[in-house]
Amino acid sequence: MIILLIIIILLVIWVIAIYNSLVTKRTRVDNGWAQIDVQLKRRYDLIPNLVETVKGYAAHEKEVLEKVAELRSRAMGATSPKEAAEANNMLSATLKTLFAVAENYPQLKANENFMRLQEELTATENKIAFARQFYNDVVMDYNVTIQKFPQTIIASMFNFKPREFFTAPAEEREAVKVKF
């Protein structure tokens, strides 16, 4: 009887240890997503200032400016990592177009506000890339853990579901073409 009681106690301790490990990993995934969200919020806050700065110089580039504003709103309203990734990838592409437009306006390129905003956006893009990498690392660890045996038993008992990775758009995966 004592041996059976010891086995049951060890089994309960084992289940608790695995459950706590899964909760820790799930929380790291949530934290990774929150880090991306912080950087994206910073980017969203910078964009209206950038657009206003560009408007003064490039008033007839209205289409690009409206597209940036629209995609910013869309990205801010995303509810899942997949939706956020798609919206932010489109926003990144449109920001590149905006910076290309700025190339046509030498006075804008030399404007101190524009240069500062461009530098801040570049730094923010780097932080977003780092946060995405961190998020994908913790998602991979979490997803692998909930699929391993015997953790998969505990994970399915307590409804731990795999998380989505933050993915790059197909056009960013293509090799860069260099022309001289």
Structural account:
It contains seven helices and no strands. With 180 residues, the chain is mainly alpha-helical. The longest helix is centred in the first third of the chain and has 56 residues.
- First and last CA, distance: 82 Å
Give the count of helical stretches: 7
Radius of gyration based on Cα positions: 23 Å
Major sheet: none
Shape: rod-shaped
Category by helix and strand content: mainly alpha
What is the total tally of β strands?
0
- Percent in strands: under 5%
- Helices and strands, in N-to-C order? HHHHHHH
Mean pLDDT value: 84
Range of helix content: over 70%
Unreliable parts: none
Summarize this, please?
81% of the residues lie in helices and 0% in strands.
List the helices and strands and how they pair.
Elements: H1 2-57, H2 62-76, H3 81-102, H4 106-110, H5 112-147, H6 151-157, H7 170-173
Helix pairs in contact: 1-2, 1-5, 2-3
Give short descriptive properties of this protein.
single chain; 180 residues; mainly alpha; 7 helices; 81% helix; rod-shaped
